[in-house]
Every structure is written in C-alpha cells, then in structure tokens.
Write a structure and sequence with these properties.
The chain is of the alpha+beta class and about 60 residues long. It has three helices and three strands; from the N terminus they run βααββα. A three-stranded antiparallel beta sheet has the order 1-3-2.
Length: about 60
C-alpha cells in the first residue's frame, strides 16, 4: 500500500516543515530550492519567505 508522505499536511510548507518530512536540514531545503531541484513559492513582504508545495515533496521522493 502506498501512502504519500504529505497525506495530512498543508498545501504549502515552510522550509523547516519540509526538512522534517525529508529528514534533512532546513539549509538543504533552501539549497534545493536555489538549485531548482525543489520548487519554492517566494512570498513577498518584510523579510522574504519561501513555501514549498506539499506535492513537490512527494515528487522529489518519487524521483529519488
């Protein structure tokens, strides 16, 4: 039986939440976004914010 890693999580995750799901550091998530290996949504405002689509976590796991 296949269960998605993101079955019960919000549609957009913080880098820290993404790191917990992938069992890596938040710095690794930022690097993956910077290199284009993981899509990130940049949210404008005071202090830049990045959110990771939950579906992108599943796609990354499927590729690896």
């Amino acid at each position: 039986m296949h269960t998605d890693a993101t079955a019960e999580v919000p549609a957009l995750l913080t880098p820290s939440e993404s790191a917990i799901l992938l069992r890596v550091s938040a710095a690794t998530i930022y690097r993956l976004v910077r290199t284009g290996d993981l899509p990130g949504v940049h949210i404008a405002g005071p202090g830049s914010s990045i959110r990771i689509p939950a579906a992108a976590i599943d796609e990354l796991l499927a590729r690896r």
